[in-house]
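Let's sit down with a protein and look at its sequence and fold side by side. We need material for that, and I hope you will provide a protein of your own picking. Once you have written the record down, we can walk along the chain together.

***
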Amino acid sequence: MPAEPHRALLVFLDGVGIGPADPEANPFAAAHLPRIRELLGGRLPVAEALDGGPVVAERAVLVAADATLGIDGIPQSGTGQTTLLTGRNAAALYGRHFGPWVPTGLREMLAAENLLARARAGGLVAAFANAYPVALIEADPRIFRRPAAPPLAARAAGVLTRDVPQLAAGEAVASSITNHRWRERTAEVPAVTAEQAGRNLAAIAAAAHVTLFAHYDTDHAGHRGGMEGAVAALERVDAFLGGLAGALAPDTLLVVSSDHGNVEDVREGHTLNPVPVLALGPGREALAERIRSIADVTPAILALLGIEPTTP
């Protein structure tokens, strides 16, 4: 394995925090997560595992990242995702935490300074791995009025390009990981397991320098799924990460992170908990050393790929 990464893949999991290992409240303590346990040397992303600092295992490093950003109130998706993807404290810039979509006043900054746009400006190949109904947006731009940060960033970077044909060919990944929602709308899309979706993402990442994939079902499960739904969501992610890690190119740094806590405590909605930053591959320990908050993730990835920071 090379000492420095040649490529980077950021997997965004919406609404995943680090909470106490209470099986009555935290699905991480109740779910069967063999791939995550293997990556972390038998541990899980729960508060007790990180009491002594980062988890450093043979293949991966796990650190906790602050998601409150020094702003009062409960962290939200719009500002949290914007912060994660730009390295700018979007909650401070906006004056408060805001979600679920990116507020209008932050969209220009997100468009110019997001991970994918910065990579392309630095001469690198960027990719957004998610399948997205591009044709529907072109037919009715109002669909994009209240966008999440990942597709907005991808559109600004000119890489919101994967739709039904790419998903059918295994050259895109559904935001839900498996293709079940797309299959409700079209017979063109085949069924795919979470493991195969992970392998497909690894192949996409091998063809670019910087790749982003976004998954939202973890946050949905935290809001509405109860313990059963949250466990199912995490077990799907576990299988997905297992397929991805097993197929990841040896020159690729994988970073898995989130925007705010939620699913780790099914008794309430969003939380004040820190979020996990899981790093696998070359440069993982160097990245982990740079992380204090979610604002550090994108700058750390870009720095390891040789992209200079911007001046706010």
In short: The longest helix spans residues 226-247. The chain has a mean pLDDT of 95.
